[in-house]
Amino acid sequence: MVYVVYLLKNKNKSYIGMTNDFWRRWRQHNGWIRGGAKYTTRNTSDELWMPLLIIDNFKTKKEAMQCEWKLKRKKGYMKRVEWAYTLLTSHDRWTQKSPIIKSQKLQVYVTDDYKHIFQNIDTRELYY
User: Fold this and answer.
1) What is the rounded CA–CA span in Å between residue 12 and residue 4?
2) How far apart are CA 45 and CA 99, in angstroms?
3) Is the pLDDT assigned to residue 127 strictly greater than 80?
4) Residue 36: phi, psi to the nearest 5?
5) What pLDDT does residue 37 have?
6) Is the model's pLDDT at 12 over the cut of 90?
7) What are phi and psi of 54, to 5 degrees?
8) How far is CA 18 from the centre of its chain?
9) Tens-digit pLDDT profile for residues 78-96
10) Would you put residue 7 in left (φ > 0), alpha (ψ -120 to 50) or beta?
11) Distance CA 118, CA 108 (A)
12) What average pLDDT score do residues 103-111 get?
């Protein structure tokens, strides 16, 4: 089983989470099926929570949680997108005990609006 870390946006709010089934989790965040984070269900307006970025292929839940924790250190969706790029292109780790980020062979999916930020990374287009 692989895990993903994702960044959602709704108006000027952002949410970072992790899961092993992104599309189910996304439907939960938007209230289409039961479950979901309290933050997104309380902050749902007429606008859906839309994915901006998915980092895929974490081999363990622990590795995905380490990435999620690190990305949550920044506030605001744009700062989080830029922070993700900085970390993915560095020789850094998500935490002191995690593997080096580049060694994890992660796959990055990003919407067209933010693809220019990830120009030095092999990304795939995020469709929804």
Assistant:
1) 23
2) 38
3) no
4) 105, 160
5) 80
6) no
7) -130, 130
8) 7
9) 999 999 999 999 999 999 9
10) beta
11) 9
12) 96
CA dihedral 116, 18, 77, 87 (to 10 degrees): -50
Name the residue ranges covered by the structural domains of the chain. Answer: 3-125
Q: Give the chain as a 3 state SS string.
A: CCEEEEEEEECCEEEEEEECCHHHHHHHHCCCCCCCCHHHHHCCCCCCCEEEEEEEEECCHHHHHHHHHHHCCCCCHHHHHHHHHHHHCCCCECCCCCCEHHHHCCEEEECHHHHHHHCCCCEEECCC
pLDDT for 126 beyond 90: no
CB 108 within 8 Å of CB 88: yes
120's tokens: 């030095």
- Sheet containing strand 3-10, strands side by side: 13-19, 3-10, 50-58, 107-110, 123-125
Structure tokens at 91: 């020789």
How large is the average pLDDT for residues 69-86? 95
| Single-letter code of the amino acid located at 2 | V
